[in-house]
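dumping this here so i dont lose it
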């Protein structure tokens, strides 16, 4: 028996629309990372990009559980001595909600050329509008990613 490996011409890419309003950040990020990598498909191959395109809207309405918004820190460095900057996730979400969500998802994707190609298929928007209507993205409901009251 031979192992099946899909060819580039056999890979079908769909467009998925996710409304992030009220979704928990980490649970949303893991689901999106799996869709970008193609792990939800039976033709998943670790060394090929078999994933779908993902459009996320309402990134500014994503939530964090417990007190992570105030306790969890985000660090970046300017490259100069003493250039370490830190801010809380709440501040990061207020200033750049799309970047906060994108960096969280980026941490769950391989750090190589394949991961960079998969991350290019991610489109994140802070508001409810997006310019990808021509691609006809199918809405995806992530019920288990919702915050339980």
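and the seq i came up w/
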């Amino acid at each position: 028996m031979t192992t099946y490996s899909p060819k580039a011409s056999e890979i079908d890419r769909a467009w998925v629309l996710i409304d992030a309003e009220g979704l928990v950040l980490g649970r949303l990020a893991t689901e999106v990372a799996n869709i970008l990598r193609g792990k939800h498909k039976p033709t998943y191959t670790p060394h090929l990009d078999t994933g779908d395109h993902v459009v996320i809207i309402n990134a500014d309405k994503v939530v964090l559980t417990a007190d992570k918004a105030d306790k969890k820190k985000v660090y970046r460095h300017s490259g100069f001595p003493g250039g370490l900057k830190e801010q809380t996730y709440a501040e990061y979400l207020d200033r750049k909600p799309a970047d906060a969500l994108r960096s969280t998802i980026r941490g769950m994707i391989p750090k190589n050329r394949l991961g960079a190609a998969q991350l290019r298929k991610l489109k994140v928007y802070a508001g409810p509008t997006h310019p990808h209507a021509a691609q006809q993205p199918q809405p995806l409901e992530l019920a288990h990613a919702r915050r339980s009251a």
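Residues 11-66+93-145 form a domain with the Ribosomal Protein L13p; Chain: A; fold (CATH 3.90.1180.10).
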